[in-house]
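Attaching the record inline, Q. Sequence:
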Amino acid sequence: MNKTQVITVPIKPQRGWIYQMRNTLGLTLNKLAQACAVSTPTIAQAERGEVSGKITVETLRRAAEAMNCEFVYAFKPKSNFEEFINSRAYEKAKRILSNADLHMSLEDQRVSGELEQRIQNLKKKLIKEGKVW
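Structure, as predicted:
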């Protein structure tokens, strides 16, 4: 499996990260606007946009940079990461081997051995080689 850094993602604050960090740092809308080189209404709009989900990644990055914060953008699997990878590898292995079995049986060359065991073996190989996608 490819080396993947697993991070814990905190729950987004109700009023958004820009508002939360700005207030934690004791910055007014005006001070943050100056640091971002934009108008005060633009920062207020960014805070509202973050809450409504209508903000760009670039705006978030610029706000984080102005507050001397590291901007982190991530996708987090809905399930346990290990379960997620195992499930993905299993489905890929099953698809590959089921398709191959169909073609082999049509040519009367079906591979001996239980399909499930071959799927498990291929799943392990796909995970080891980092080829679950």
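Residues 81-128 form one domain. The chain has two domains: 17-66, 81-128.

More tomorrow.
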